[in-house]
Each structure stands twice: as structure tokens, then as C-alpha cells.
Write a structure and sequence with these properties.
elongated; 3 domains; alpha+beta
Length: 142
Amino acid sequence: MDTRTTSRQDFESVSQQSGELELEEENTPATPFTLSKSIKDTEHFSKVCDAVCAGNSVLVLGEAGTGKGDFALALHQELSGEFNSAIATYKGSLKKFFIAIAFQLDIPTTETQYNKNGDPTGEKDLTVDDTVGESNQEKIQT
């Protein structure tokens, strides 16, 4: 069971009867709410799992607070034994977004820098270019 706390005055809660998101217009302090059933028990979750198993890609989108992050995490956990998968939440920084994905897929994001004598002097961040893309193409496709 997933329990969260919301700090907005107009807070969102999940209807226990319909499973749909409802907005309650109350002047209420931070109030906990509970999702009525497990994400993995929903029809939508089963359909998305079937789609991924059939070879389709999935992008989970939604309004803030609707549970899309939990849905994506549950999907990742459910299928991680069958697929080489990664999960990341985009929050305005593409660099951090792609680094999170690369880390989960064991794709290096830095390379060692050397001085003129060939001694290592530190690391530099890799950029998304043809060289990096080609060297990791096999990992991305599997």
C-alpha cells in the first residue's frame, strides 16, 4: 500500500470507488492519503506490461501527483528480470536525465584525461555525440 503526504491546500486524492483522480477543494493542512489498490493490480498496468513484452516502448506522462512515477517504477521492477531497462524522471535538466539513464544501463558518462606524458590527470564528462553513441549502441539496443 502506498502512503504519501501532500502539502497543498487544494490537495488531490484518489477515489476509492472509481480509482480516478478527484480534486478536493478544501483549506486543509498537510493530509495523508492512500492509493486504494496496488498499481500492479490495475488493468492499465497489465496492458502496459503486455505492450512492453510485445516490443513497444513506453513513455509515462501525467499531471503532478497522479502517480506516474510510482507507475513507471512498478513497471521497471516488474520487467527488470526480462529486459535491460532504465527509468528516469525528467525535471528540467536533460543532462541529469540522460546521466541517470546511462548509469542504470552501465554506460560510462566520463572518460579519463591524460597529460602529454600519458599520466591520468582526472576525468572529463562525455557529451552526446556520434562517438559516444556508436560505442554504446549495442548496450542501448539490448
